[in-house]
Amino acid sequence: MVKLFTHTDLDGIGCEILAKIAFGKDVDVTNSEVSDINKNIKGFLDNPKNNGIYDKIYITDISVNKENAERLSNRPEKVQLLDHHGTALWLNQYPWAHVRVKDKETGILTSGTELMYKNLEKEGLFKSLDNKHSEQLKQFTEAVRDYDTYRFDKMGEDGKLSRDLNDLMFIKGSIPFKNDVYNQLNIGTFPFFSEADRAMLDMSHRKLENYIKDKNENIEVFTINGYKGGLVYAEQNFSELGNKLCEMNPKLDFIAMVEPTKGFVSIRSRRDDIDVGKDIAAPLGGGGHAKSAGAPLKDEMKLLFRNALEDAVSAGAIIRNGHLMEVDFSKKSKFFNFETGQLTIPAGITAVDGIFKKNEVDLQNRLKIKSVVIESDIKEIPNGLFANCKNLEAVKFNDSLEKIEGEAFLGCERLQGISLPDSLKNIDNYAFAFCKNLSGMDMSNELYEKLISENKLGDIFMETNLDMNEFMKEKEQEIEDSEIENPDVDNIEQE
Question: Does 48 sit behind a cis peptide bond, omega within 30 degrees of 0 on the bond before it?
Fold first, then answer.
């Protein structure tokens, strides 16, 4: 029985397909991301139930850390690590590790699948195959290698098979894809694409063009370790997306594609003066090649990227640790549209510490705001935040707001009506004082009763156009009607 740990991309899946052709049902596979390979290896080594079950352990298209390497050296099973990433070359100190970046015979970049193919071929595990099956197996291996090393991008029509295999894997999912390819290689029909496959690929290629265009329009520029990078959030097509974005943004040293759901960042470059595997990925706990690398999104890396992003790409604002500190009112951005006067607090902001500079420009910028939209999940609007924004006419609150502090909207003379969210639990004195045109207001019954019990309602809305007596009369009637429609069952005496 053989145990295989392999990567989840096309190259890693290629290793798995070759292993199943060589060993049939006698191979047990664990697919691993860069972020969890060492955890998976450690779990395997820690489990006494795995002792004596396997004759050989393969680790392909991915590497292990020092701790696991030492433990693997003491295993009774035969261990074989086959990897092609430059940052794993240090593992060659172990006799069971075979890390090669380039093929010795051809001089071109190699891949995990190609290393696995040559290893299994050397062991005579493909000698029973006829010429037809052997040629198709070699064709598959080379197609995977050409995609993983980006040769396909310069091969024209000859690179089409590589691209189609990778795209089809993402379209179908890895399990149906590897089952299809395994069956084709077994019966000698590789490569076969059904009409449905071709239709899906055509649609995928059109979507990819729009996908790349959208990511390029939302690229964020930041600096890390002295290099200028472009950051995008992505969930698929990392190789093609990264290469295309590098091509479209030649002034950037590299492109970082963050996949937050799986917890890793994929890094690409087309420049010769940077080694993204060594200069970017390795310090962050990852690895790879000079022009292609990846790293797990550890907590410290998330903080590093977030801080770099906040410093350089906040697009019109100063942000620290998720807190909005100051907005730039001199240009159109996702925070402020000077054409419409709309100020937006976007999703991702965890708190607002300030918006304006603390000088005479403060008053000028306050007059520029005509509307406020809160998209983030902030809990509080701090004291005096929008005070004297005399041209402010409308505010759209978020549904998670819990507190509005004192004088937050004091002196907003053009504010006419507000609808406070049901989540709001407290308002401090003078929050809406001197809003002279404020004549309409909606708040929850719970908040109203709290403010009445604290005798704060008059101070909060001092010098507004709100008819407080009429408002209180309407709220009392609303509460009374609500109690009739929804009686408190606990207070009804049982007969």
Answer: no
DSSP β-ladder status, 371-374 and 323-327: unpaired
Q: What are phi and psi of 318, to 5 degrees?
A: -105, 125
pTM (predicted TM-score): 0.56
- For 43-73, letters b (16+ CB in 10 Å) and e give ebbeeeebeeebeebbbbbbbbeeebbeebe
Task: State the distance between the two ends of the chain, measured CA to CA, in whole angstroms.
Answer: 74
Phi, psi (rounded to 5 degrees) for 280 = -115, -55
Task: Give residues with Cβ within 8 angstroms of 149, minimum separation 6.
Answer: 108, 109, 110, 111
Question: How far is it, in rounded angstroms, from Cα 9 to Cα 457?
Answer: 61
CB 100 within 8 A of CB 115: yes
Torsion of CA 89, 93, 96, 98, to 10 degrees: 30
- As a whole number of angstroms, the distance between CA 24 and CA 12 comes to 17
Query: Which regions of the chain are under pLDDT 50?
Result: 310-314, 360, 489, 491-495
Q: Say how far apart CA 16 and CA 141 lie, in whole Å.
A: 12
Amino acid 333: pLDDT: 76
Neighbours of 3 (CB within 10 A): 19
Give the model confidence (pLDDT) of 313-332 as tens digits: 445 777 776 788 888 887 77
Question: What pLDDT is recorded for position 493?
Answer: 46
Give the residue from 58, 160, 54, 180 showing the smallest Cα distance to 115: 58
- The Cα 440–Cα 116 span in angstroms is 72
